[in-house]
Amino acid sequence: MSESRQYELMYVISPDVGEDGVAELHTQIETIVTGLDGRITKNENWGRRRLAYEINKKREGTYVVALIEGPGEILSLIHICRCR
């Protein structure tokens, strides 16, 4: 296993996704992290905020920040997952 490090993951969720969808996405990310012997040390939902620029015709998004400890493979799997 590779060296364990701390990473900060910030993701923006479409404003069309409700609280249940945000919780489901967090569960998917947590499953990936724990599957590689990592752990989420902090998870903060910053709520809906205005985006700096329009993305897919949306001007707002729900911001979530997580601190993750574990091997670097965790981030590549989360990136590949593009959890929806």
List keywords for this structure.
84 residues; alpha+beta
Task: State the gist of this model.
The protein is an alpha+beta fold.
What would you say this structure looks like, in words?
The protein starts with a strand and ends with a helix. Strand 2 (39-55) and strand 3 (58-70) form a beta hairpin. It is elongated and about 40 Å long. It contains two helices and three strands, in the order E-H-E-E-H. It has a three-stranded antiparallel beta sheet with strand order 1-3-2. It has helices at 19-35, 73-81, and strands at 5-13, 39-55, 58-70. With 84 residues, the chain is of the alpha+beta class.
Sketch the major β-sheet.
Answer: 3 strands, antiparallel
What is the oligomer described by this structure?
single chain
Shape: elongated
Radius of gyration: 13 Å
What's the pLDDT, averaged over the residues? 88
**How many helices in DSSP terms?**
2
Helix content: 25-40%
Order of helices and strands: EHEEH
Query: Count of DSSP E strands?
Result: 3
Portion in strands: over 45%
Structure classification: alpha+beta
Terminal-residue CA separation: 28 Å
Blueprint of the fold:
Blueprint lengths: L4 E9 L5 H17 L3 E17 L2 E13 L2 H9 L3
Antiparallel strand pairs: 1-3, 2-3
